[in-house]
TrEMBL record:
Pfam families: DUF1749. InterPro entries: AB_hydrolase_fold (IPR029058), SidJ (IPR013744). It comes from the Eukaryota. This is AB hydrolase-1 domain-containing protein.
């Protein structure tokens, strides 16, 4: 991908590709451990977006790469808000779409929940690709280890300032504080947006009333390796869509289960059908962005 690298806040950079003078900007936010080019499909999505008049912006956040373990959704929202301010002020941005992958979906949703207290920008589209629960696990050994680490994190967080202390190396593959581990893995944690056992009221508190002027696509992977086999994916995306629409039903929400798709829409040699997922998703997003407010 060719484009411009720039600094949007102290020690934070972003890369913009596509039409250099585009007033419409698609912001791509990856998940845990991601940074630039978070997914296989990003170049083709950027190309499709550019053909519809959108540039693509890939930011580095303070939680990018392996720094996620000592961050928070609130800090991510601060960075995203700073990026939007910069794009509007310095790079001709007037209309914005946000595409989150994996934990990037939580960042997008948390931004929308926090938006009334932030500088206002025209967020016309939100795309949630592979927003999944971090706490729902199928493997019994992994679940037992998670519960053990949750207990340790709770004990540490109860101490004065303990939430900012790091858990032992054995807790996670990346450095993680007690509070960040709780946010991701505890029931009702700050990152607990997409768990299948959330009630209708809990979904409404997370999604209701924030999308009346923003179109949303919820793209769930049909073969997501991070989702337990017991989860009814179509039912879950439809429940989230209903929560977003709310009682008035004003929000336009597209619930979508992507056929043959793993978590990152990557083509896998052992699964020839997986190669079709990227093309399907990119075509759906292109049409979604074309039908623009």
């Amino acid at each position: 991908m060719r484009g411009s690298l720039f600094q949007y806040a102290p020690q934070l950079q972003a890369f913009e590709s596509g039409p250099g003078d585009a007033e419409k900007k698609l912001i791509m936010i990856g998940g845990l451990s991601d940074g630039l080019l978070p997914c296989w499909y990003v170049p083709s999505l950027g190309q499709a977006a550019s053909e519809e008049g959108w540039s693509m912006v890939q930011p580095i956040l303070r939680s990018s790469y392996n720094m996620w373990g000592f961050g928070s959704l609130e800090r991510d929202v601060e960075d995203l808000s700073a990026l939007l301010d910069f794009l509007a002020r310095e790079r001709e941005g007037k209309k914005f779409a946000i595409c989150g992958h994996s934990t990037g979906c939580q960042i997008a949703c948390h931004y929308m929940r926090s938006r009334e207290n932030l500088p206002q920008h025209n967020i016309s589209h939100i795309i949630l690709q592979a927003g999944v629960s971090d706490r729902e696990l199928e493997d019994a050994d992994a679940l037992a280890k998670q519960q053990e680490n949750l207990q340790a994190a709770r004990q540490l967080a109860r101490q004065s300032g303990g939430g900012d202390e790091f858990l032992p190396r054995s807790a996670c593959w990346a450095p993680v504080t007690a509070q960040r581990f709780l946010d991701l893995n505890d029931v009702g944690g700050k990152d607990d947006y997409f768990s299948s056992d959330l009630s209708e009221d809990e979904l409404a508190r997370r999604f209701g009333g924030f999308y009346s002027t923003t179109d949303v696509m919820i793209a769930y992977s049909s073969k997501d390796e991070y989702v337990p086999s017991t989860v009814n994916k179509q039912e879950l995306v439809e429940r989230i869509a209903r929560a977003m629409r709310g009682e008035g039903g004003k929000a336009r929400v597209v619930p979508l289960v992507v056929p043959n798709a793993n978590h990152a829409l990557s083509p896998l040699p052992e699964d020839p059908e997986s190669a079709s997922a990227e093309k399907f998703f990119v075509a759906q997003v292109r049409e979604f962005l074309r039908d623009s407010k």
